[in-house]
Recover the amino acids of this structure.
């Protein structure tokens, strides 16, 4: 089971799309989001290490999006 709660996913879908999502759908979306977050985190930590920093910055995370889109 994902760490992101089904309730959080349901709330997000309801607020942004005025729709409902099943428990199974919310659990699957949470799993997918966690997998993507892990990829982004790995990339951002790598960027911070290359810059000899112990902390990940917003720019480290944003760079993932830029690299992915190019």
């Amino acid at each position: 089971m994902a760490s992101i709660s089904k309730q959080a996913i349901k709330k997000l879908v309801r607020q942004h799309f005025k729709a409902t999502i099943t428990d199974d759908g919310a659990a699957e979306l949470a799993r997918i989001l966690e997998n993507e977050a892990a990829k982004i985190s790995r990339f951002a930590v790598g960027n911070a290490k290359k810059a000899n920093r112990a902390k990940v910055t917003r720019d480290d995370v944003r760079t993932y999006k830029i690299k992915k889109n190019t």
Remarks:
- Residues 10 and 21 are 6 Å apart (CA to CA).
- DSSP finds three helices and no strands in the chain.
- The mean pLDDT is 93.
- The first helix runs from residue 6 to 17.
